[in-house]
Amino acid sequence: MGKTLAEKILSTKSGAEAKAGDIVVAKVDLVFVQDTTGPLAVRQFRAAGFEHTASSLEAILFLDHAAPSPNRELSNDHMLLRDFAYQTGGMLSDVGEGICHQIVAESLAKPGDLVIGADSHTVTAGGLGAFACGMGSTDIAVALGLGRTWLRVPESVRVSLSGRFPSGVFAKDLVLYLIGQIGADGATYKALEFSGDSAGAMSISERLTVANMAVEAGAKVGLFPADEATRDYLSSQGRGDHYQPLFPDDSADYGQIIDINLAGLEPVVARPHTVDNIALARELKGTKVNQVVIGTCTNGRLDDLAVAAKILSGKKRHVQTRLLIAPASRGVLLAAMRDGYIQTLLEAGAIILPPGCGPCLGLHQGVLASGESCLSTANRNFKGRMGNPEAFVYLGSPATAAATAITGEITDPREVL
Amino acid sequence: MLTGRAFKFGDNISTDQIIPGRFAHLRSNLPELAKHAMEDAAPTFVARVKPGDFIVAGSNFGLGSSREHAPLVIKMAGVKAILARSVARIFFRNAINVGLPVLLCHTDNINDGDELEVDLKAGTIRDITSGSQLTFSKIPEIMLHILDEGGLLPYLEKYGDFKL
Ligand code: SF4
User: Fold this and answer.
1) Per-residue pLDDT for A1 more than 90?
2) What range defines the domain where residue A370 resides?
3) Residue B150 in domain
4) Does pTM top 0.95 for this prediction?
């Protein structure tokens, strides 16, 4: 029997013949924390008696969730993480550099790596063929010290993609549709492995969007093969030497196969308060929206800003709808300035936030008022997610977000394209 | 043997409801943070819960963010175990790592306020109020060992490494 992508990577990292269902102890390549989970990880690291991070791994601390800090408590947490980085020699990605998952994808994760982060959307790097999954602070602290973690090798679900996206339909619509089909716990403890010609035709940014949301179906990882698109992306980031091809074996055992024809998809929106509560964007016409957010680790990349700028070019946001843009990283912001997207978005009435998580988790920068609705390109619409349990969060693609910003109500982007 | 009352919750209780992101500034001040446990799922939870009580939930409890503060504040509120039809995977690991048992079982017939008696070793739950008996499923051995030691750090102190 051949191996799935998950089995292949975990076999290499554990030095054992890892099959779905096995428990393995595996060597980790990259371990990171962010500013809301890092302080506890640092305290647990010290409580466990560790002084140095394991020399076999790269350790990175990201200040991205509260960036810049809105209050002294979080400023003190930032100071704790900066000090830890200086003391241990860990890398620090300070306020303004961008969201952990984006920087991991741009600069750090390699195909075949085992990446663990103290953040649930660590799965994003699965778009590059890394076995990347989120854990809590204590697991991360122990992995930082030992250089190893334990994992149950997940069963893999194959998501086989065919066809091409119709105009106005994007990777975000695909993943929202998939979660709507299988449910918010449809892949719990499992790996979602994407395959098929249409997966191969997807850009790395699109793959990152899809992998990012694997956790919203409960999955441990969302994996794409590492292929020529991966090689080209890594080269474009100046790290072509990080490439290695990685594909599942033809005879691998996939317990479940889901076929999706991209040509049959339409723009999809997740309604409050669960990600699997999906509807077609056109069915929600008339739903008033007070704030639109374009950004986050799901959809804050250059192609996302490009789509939004194209739709908003020469137009103005609706007078009653605030438009917040948070580029996922400094690199994305610089490229978007170079390409003129930031100018276009500002002229359309947008507010440009610093690279980082922005309003995604309700800490700062765009907390909603009671009764208000937001359409966001993020990955979560849970009750209270954007800082107010009496507010309503809808999720959609950057195109749906841009179209909605113009009309002030949820809008199928095909109406304005 | 653990005894206490059931606090019943539905499906898909997220870590954002268990300990909302808007309290992130309290994460280095756990006693203050714990005052907000379960706040967006049941605003009066902390005032009503008594040491030894249980959280009884439907499916996919603890989905969402990796914040370990979620099981931590539940434990600090006095909850002795979480009974659920299913739990999200990061929350599952985190709960075990902080020494909070998670018992996977059919919770549909347990009602809010029922008196429960849990035998962790035997794997059984008796609903004293309704007179019914349930069993919960086994968790991986490594998690049992971590739980036996009271969490991942005491486990590591004892074994020095992961033991399979
Ligand atoms: S952008 Fe949102 S989902 Fe992504 S890491 Fe930041 S807070 Fe989490």
Assistant:
1) no
2) 268-415
3) no
4) yes
